[in-house]
Amino acid sequence: MAVFKTWVKNIFREIADPDRDVEITELAQLIQGGLAKHKRSFVLTEVLGDRSFKQSHLDEARLSVYEKYLARAWADGRMEASEKEILNWVAKCLELPKSMLKKANLEAARPRFAEALAIAMDDCVISSEEESHLHWIAKTAGYSLHEFMMEFFRTEGEQFLNGVFAASIEAEQSAIDSLDELIATAAKLGLPQEIVLKTIQPQAVRYIEHTLADAKQDEILGLEEEQLLNQLLKRFVLPKEVKSYISSELQEFHLLSELKRGKLPSLKQPSGVSLKAGELVHFHDGATWERLRLLKSGPSTDVHKGFLTISDSRMLFSSSTRSESFSYGSIVSYDLPGSVIKLQLRGRPMQRFVIQNGSKSPSAIFECALRMANQLLTNQDEKRRTRHIPRDIRQRVWQRYSGHCAECNATEYLEFDHVVPVAKGGSNSDANVQLLCRNCNLKKSDLI
């Protein structure tokens, strides 16, 4: 769009001001000749004489002459004191406004600064000597290093910081160490910490997503993994909605990991729920009971909205239209598709309980409580070992899908998934591992 606007502007200028380029060239030649001839006695008004011209054309001609001297001074990559003195004299002779001078000096020094910065950042660390050289370039252009860096940052800085951070991560350096080094480097360049954190936000989100997906792959959240993710959430500045979603994901993942270890959450007795002596409550929240009845006229489903309570010995459903208790001993079989609990009870058809908040943790709590009650909860270490996907495989799979779901291209709630489940003989090779978002993973589970 910017290129199109420039093209339209140039076309309009050619039509409205056809003599512009010719007059600017003539004025520049006149001024250049006057400087060469009169030197220290140069006076702009005397050189122009009674020639008629547009003021805008004169402004561009003056700037053009100054830029030639400026390019000559920077030709060898350095500007000597004598060259700086000549530039100041030319600027004074041409009566250039300070704003015009400042912009011209910035643009001339920008490529020198970029080159020096690239050399300095070759090892991702700026030495005191390199810092001094950058200070010198900025000062030569009439800026402090902080001022120059802020101007430079508006165009090249964002790409520069993102590149440095990404390179550090790819070099297997921890994100926290990379961030600390980047902040220290940026401080030398005069960039505040808040600007650095905001700039690398997209990279940080992607990195935390990757770290979370890595932790999820074996379905157990280790202490080091949890500490790292909490550190990342605390250290990086993330969009509010992203931080909220990752925090909730981490909280649920922690709960699911504890359940796999046989550790159930304990809640206070919910108001209005009648419990037996010593009965422990592990879950209580809103749910819908889809009660299937087999009538002579055919199957019929009644829908009741209320609350589902999971304890250490039974499951209770309470509502204003229907309430009932289901002991774990009466359950013949069950199925847990996502946020739904399906129960096959002795002598009764299949019953469905849909959790209102859409979380899959209630289903996991129910399964853990049932297995604990039936004394069937076993050590998960063997399962964890067989399902564990090596780090190099996870890295290749993540790069193959560029951090997107293989099915719907989503970038959130990502999980490493075995194309052929381990239980059915699937291996941990990269050919059998894909990246799926939670929704697509659940859909796949429903089809298996």
Q: How much of the sequence is in beta strands?
A: 5-15%
Low-confidence stretches: 11-16, 378-385
Run of helices and strands = HHHHHHHHHHHHHEEEEEEEHHHEEH
Overall structural class, as computed from helix and strand content, comes to alpha+beta
Radius of gyration computed on alpha carbons: 35 Å
Give me the count of strands: 9
Number of domains: 4
Which bin fits the share of residues in helices?
A: 40-55%
N- and C-termini, Cα separation: 49 Å
Mean pLDDT: 83
What does the overall shape look like? elongated
Key traits:
two-stranded antiparallel ribbon; 9 strands; HNH endonuclease; HNH_nuc; nuclease; endonuclease activity; nucleic acid binding; 17 helices; PH-domain like; 448 residues
Describe how the helices and strands are arranged.
Blueprint lengths: L1 H15 L3 H19 L5 H5 L6 H19 L7 H14 L3 H23 L7 H13 L4 H26 L4 H14 L4 H7 L1 H16 L6 H13 L4 H21 L20 E15 L2 E14 L2 E5 L5 E4 L3 E5 L4 E6 L4 E6 L5 H13 L7 H7 L3 H10 L13 E5 L14 E5 H10 L1
Antiparallel strand pairs: 1-2, 1-7, 2-3, 3-4, 5-6, 6-7, 8-9
Helix pairs in contact: 2-4, 4-5, 4-6, 6-7, 7-8, 8-9, 11-12, 11-13, 12-13, 13-14
